[in-house]
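lol so apparently i was supposed to do this last week
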Amino acid sequence: MNAGIVGIGRYLPEKILRNADLEKMMDTSDEWIRTRTGIQERRIASDEVDTSDMAYEASLKALKDAGLTAEDLDLIIVATVTPDYPFPSVACMIQEKLGAKKAAAFDLSAACAGFMYGMITAQQFIEGGVYKHVLVVGVEKLSKIVNWEDRNTAVLFGDGAGAVVMGPVGEEHGILAFELGADGTGAKHLYQDEYIFMNGREVFKFAVRQMGESSINVLEKAGLSKEDVDFLIPHQANIRIMEAARQRLELPEEKMSKTVHLYGNTSAASIPISIVEELENGKIKEDDVIVMVGFGGGLTWGAIAMRWGK
Ligand code: UT7
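anyway here it is w/ oxa(dethia)-CoA bound
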C-alpha cells in the first residue's frame, strides 16, 4: 500500500493585485516584474481573513472531494510561515473549526518547501499503518509580512491555501519516491525578522540547482526516467527557475504547471494550488506520473514522484 492524495481543495482570496497596481505603490514596472519573474497578478487576503480562515476553506473542499468527514481525520499538518499566532497552531485552530475531534494537529515550518515536508511526513504515518487519513495544508498570508516599501520582495508574493487529504491507495498509485533536504548555512539568504528579507540572487542560484537535482533524484529512486514524466509541478516562485527545472527534465512546455502569473509566489500553498488548477484544466489525468518539487527558506527542499489516482 502507498500513501496518496484522496481529496484536494484550495482557497484563493478574491482581491487581485495587478502589476499595474504595484507601479502606483513603488518604483517598479509591469515589464520588469513580468520579464524577471513571470508574475502578472497575485491574490491578497482582506484584513478579516487570516491564515486559519483560508486553511479552513481549502480543507472543507478537500474533505468533500475525498468523500470524508472531519471525524475521519487522524492527523492535521499545516505547513505555513504565516500562522495567525505563534501558538496555538493553525492546525489546532482548524481542527476545532472543522470538528476533527480525534485528529492530532501541528504546524510545520519549512517555508516554500513546507508542503513537500507535510506530504512526506503524512506518508510516513499512513504507510507505517499508524494513521489512515491525514489532512495536509499549505497556506500563507504573506501579505502580512511583506514590506510594501521593498520592491525586491513586495512584487513576488501572494496569499492562498491548498489542502489535500492523504490516505492509503493501491501499490501502483500515490507516492513512489521522495527526497527531503535542508542546508542551514543558507539561512541568511531568506528569512523574516519583522518583514521578509531575501538575497534574491543567492536564492535564485540555489533554486535552479536544487529543483533540477531533486527532480532527477526522485525519478531515479522511483526507478523511472525523464521520459516517464507526464507532468511537473514546481514551486511557483519565478518562471525562470521553473523553466530551468523543466529543461533539466527535458519536458515540453505543456508538461509543466504554470500558475505563477496568476497567483505569484504563495510559498507552501503554491504546489497544491497548482494541482487544483491543472486538474480543473484537465492536464492531470488518472495514472499520470507527476513530479512535484519545492525549495525555500531554511534553506529547505523537497520533491515527490507520484502516480496520480487512488
Ligand atoms: O520561494 C522562495 C523565495 N524566493 C525566490 O524564489 C526568489 C529567487 N530569486 C529571484 O526570483 C530573483 O533573484 C528576483 C526576481 C528576486 C530578482 O531577479 P534578478 O534577475 O536576480 O534581479 P537582481 O536582484 O539581480 O536585480 C536586478 C535589478 C537591480 O537593480 P541594479 O542593482 O541592477 O540597478 C534591482 O534593484 O533590478 C532591480 N529591481 C527592481 N526593479 C524594478 C529589483 N526589484 C525590482 C522591482 N522593480 N520590483
